[in-house]
Amino acid sequence: MHVRLRLALVTALAGGLAASVAAQTPTRPAAMPPTRPAAPSVTPPPTPTELPTPTASQSAAAKELFQSMKLPQLMGTMEMAMVDAQIARNPGMEPYRDVLVGWLKKWMTWEAMEPDLIKLYAATFTESEMKQLGRFYRTEIGQKSLSKVPELLQKGNQIGARLGQAHSDELAALIKARKAELDKEKAEAAAGPTPEVEPTATPKRP
Questions:
Q1: Residue among 120, 116, 115, 107 at smallest CA distance from 20
Q2: What is the CA radius of gyration of the chain?
Q3: Contact of 51 with 123, CB cutoff 8 Å
Q4: DSSP-derived secondary structure letter, 51
Q5: Most exposed among 9, 22, 56, 63, judged by the fewest C-beta atoms under 10 Å?
């Protein structure tokens, strides 16, 4: 549980990087059915859920917890882990590694993220709970759990990428089959209902 608490920062970094890369580099998995390129569009960023403003004591407890978790120092190692994970999912971005790192260092800074993280933690934990967590992270096992997060994140992404690659042919076949079904339904809808044919009466023999 304690390790997952630190992933709020990881998720924010990953979401920011993935959204930016996805907006600039549309990807097409191997063996996927061809699709017609969509017209360029600009998608506005999602509006975060408004969180209540924490009290001064809550903010102090959150900041103390962040220092115990070494979140400010974590930024540098997480930047590289996020870039590695993004390139693992989209190898075509390898030549742009330095661009991704530079973008993260410019915009995903601790100063930019800390105010919203304080609100997030204050809305999730009580002041007493944040102080208890801070005491845990200052212990030897707490520090070890924190130091292993980047490594665990990177290896976890590698496991997911390996599993996905191993079964990518099945996914492509399923998508191809579903596309055929949708195309058939679309063609039938465009053709309209089949007219009913009146049965021909058989003349009676005299």
A1: 107
A2: 27
A3: yes
A4: -
A5: 56
Full DSSP string of 78-146: HHHHHHHHHHHH-GGGGGGHHHHHHHHHHHS-HHHHHHHHHHHHHHHS-HHHHHHHHHHHTSHHHHHHH
What is the distance, to the nearest Å, from the Cα of residue 26 to the centroid of all Cα atoms in its chain? 15
Q: Any idea where the domains of the chain sit in the sequence? A: 2-25+53-183
**pLDDT per residue as tens digits for the range 144-173:** 988 887 788 778 878 888 888 888 899 889
What CA–CA distance (Å, rounded) separates 191 from 183?
12
The SS3 of residue 159 is helix
Give the pair of three-digit tokens for residue 90: 């989209």
Helix, strand or coil, per DSSP, at residue 173: helix
The one-letter code for the residue type at 100 is L
The model's pLDDT over 69-124, given as tens digits with 9 standing for 90+, comes to 988 887 767 777 788 888 888 888 899 989 988 888 888 888 888 999 999 999 99
Q: What pTM did the predictor assign?
A: 0.56
Amino acid at 94: E
User: What pLDDT, in 10s, does the model give residues 31-56?
Assistant: 444 444 444 444 454 445 688 999 99
